[in-house]
Amino acid sequence: MSDTLAADLFAPTSIGAIDVTNRIVMAPLTRSRAGMDGVHGPLAVDYYRQRASAGLIVTEATNISQQGRGYAYTPGIYTDAHAEAWREVTDAVHESGGKIVLQLWHVGRVSHFSLQEGGAPPVAPSAIRAGGRVYTLAGDDVPSMPRALEADEIPGLVEDYRNAAHLAKKAGFDGVEVHAANGYLLDQFLRDSTNRRTDLYGGSVGNRARFPIEVVKAVAEIWGADRVGVRISPLSTAIGETPLDSDPQATYGYFVQQLGGLGLAYLHAVEGQLREANAASALDFKALHAAFGGAYIANNGYDRQLAMDAIASGHADMISFGRAFIGNPDLVERLRRNAPLFEAPLTAYYGGGAEGYTDFPTLAD
Ligand code: 8OZ
Predict the structure, then answer these.
(1) Contact 298, 280 (CB under 8 A)
(2) Which residue has the CA at smallest separation from atom 11 of ligand 1?
(3) What is the mean pLDDT of the chain?
């Protein structure tokens, strides 16, 4: 075996137009520490700065509109105040030598009327209620019954994404990632389990992918395609108890092939279930990578060895780590040295202040 020729997890590369110092990505992580207005404070600046040695940071999922919000204390990117707050974050990450893209999020049906403007019902491709729990100001509750979007509302939603992409640019990000995973709005359109529409946006896979592709194209018009990534999770059911598509290989295969034709920066795939082990063999992710044709970020349950192997074998161009970045701000250095990782408790994940957020030590501390 020729180790010297194999790609290296710790070597620089570029992903689309973004140059990165290593192939380790900080995965998007909901931490629920913004204000109810979706504006971040100084703690978020510290949090992201501490993790700037990642080759690339993908921010926590960020609401593109109030309608897109499904959880209390998640950040937004639809007002100038949001952009100004995020500017502090991007400046801090760039001063520390990092790169950071913003994840654009609309939860669709995984929401609660109390989080919506005027207590309105959440929107979805079809009026099918999500399962699981959502987090409101009054604690957790069941998701509210959504109403089906009218076809003539779709252009307005595309404009919401475009506006968010524009504000992300003003905020100084290196690019954006469109969240098309985990059973949120765009994934609800893709899956035949949640999309029962009979118009141009439902039925065939071409129709189900139409709105997500319109969104990606609009965002790419703002950023240039080589600064836009898309995240998918063909096997995830955890959020909203969202049933799988009846043929994930074909549905996501079609979707990523269409995306590949746009010349995007990367495809980011969750290879399994939220918070579970890597399941890269449960679906033909290599076929998705090939159909996309561009850079591929693999996620979910990777450890140091799996990550090094996946990079060396060409399975992926970068590997994203989520949970490991919560308790290990210097994750890159720890992986480089094969140092032990601290496992942050689940109780630290969502909500609260600095504790369990910005108070995890580095090896150097
Ligand atoms: C866990 C809890 C809340 C949100 C996702 C944005 O799954 C999330 C999320 C995950 O993409």
Answers:
(1) yes
(2) 182
(3) 96
Q: Is 62 in the pocket of ligand 1 (CB under 6 A)?
A: no
pLDDT tens string 112-137: 999 999 999 999 999 999 999 999 99
Residue 356, phi-psi category: left (phi > 0), alpha (psi -120 to 50), beta (remainder)? left
Nearest CA to ligand 1 atom 4: 30
Residue 206 located in a structural domain: yes
For ligand 1, is residue 274 a contact (CB within 6 Å)? yes
The CATH number of the domain where 117 resides is what? 3.20.20.70
Phi, psi of 328 (to 5 degrees): -135, 85
Respond yes or no: is residue 184 known to be catalytic: yes
How many domains, in total, are found in the chain? 1
Q: Which tokens hold the place of 180? A: 């098309």
| Domain residue limits at 63 | 3-318
Q: Is residue 334 part of a domain?
A: no
For residue 303, report the phi and psi dihedrals to the nearest 5 degrees.
Answer: -110, -175
User: Tell me: the pLDDT tens digits for 10-57?
Assistant: 999 999 999 999 999 999 999 999 999 999 999 999 999 999 999 999
Count other Cβ atoms within 10 Å, centred on residue 11.
Answer: 12
